[in-house]
């Protein structure tokens, strides 16, 4: 079995919460249809199926991708970032890798909206600034 080279980070997550996994990647070689870029970001927490974002490209351009999913297990998940996918050896760059937890906001009984959890504290800070300016 081949060992994948890359980086990983452990993060605590809760079950039945909605998360967004996102990142930006690009190959570092110039456009060449004989050399493709393969890379991925993955969320792994057994026994649920691994969630992943995959890049397969031959263009030297930054590509942003994201995946929204409902986590099914509480525990310490592992986020993997690595080059090479499907047996393709690659050279590339990754940036802006995030795992964001969303919360649900309800309007009436029917509409549910997902918003990043950190927005709540940001709005509170903005409201405090407005109050301090008016006083």
Structure characterization notes:
With 135 residues, the protein is mainly β. It has one domain (6-102): Jelly Rolls (Sandwich). The chain is built from 1 helix and 8 strands; from the N terminus they run ββββββββα. The strands form 2 sheets. The protein has a 4-stranded antiparallel sheet with strand order 1-6-3-4, with no helix packed on it. A 4-stranded antiparallel sheet has the order 5-2-7-8. It is flat and about 65 Å long. The model has no long low-confidence stretch (mean pLDDT 79).
Q: Which helices and strands occur, and which strands form pairs?
A:
Elements: E1 6-13, E2 18-27, E3 37-44, E4 51-57, E5 63-70, E6 75-83, E7 92-107, E8 111-116, H1 118-134
Antiparallel strand pairs: 1-6, 2-5, 2-7, 3-4, 3-6, 7-8
Summarize, please.
With 135 residues, this protein is mainly beta. The protein has one helix at residues 118-134; strands spanning 6-13, 18-27, 37-44, 51-57, 63-70, 75-83, 92-107, 111-116. The protein has one domain (6-102): Galactose-binding domain-like (Jelly Rolls), CATH 2.60.120.260.
Helix and strand sequence:
EEEEEEEEH
Q: Which strands sit side by side, in order, in the main sheet? A: 1-6-3-4
| Helical residue percent band | 10-25%
Question: How many DSSP-defined strands?
Answer: 8
- Rg for CA atoms: 19 Å
The first-level CATH class is given as Mainly Beta
**Superfamily (CATH H level) name:** Galactose-binding domain-like
Second rung of CATH, namely the architecture: Sandwich
Provide the CATH topology.
Answer: Jelly Rolls
> What's the helix count?
1
- What is the rounded distance between the termini? 66 Å
Given helix and strand content, the structural type is mainly beta
Largest sheet: 4 strands, antiparallel
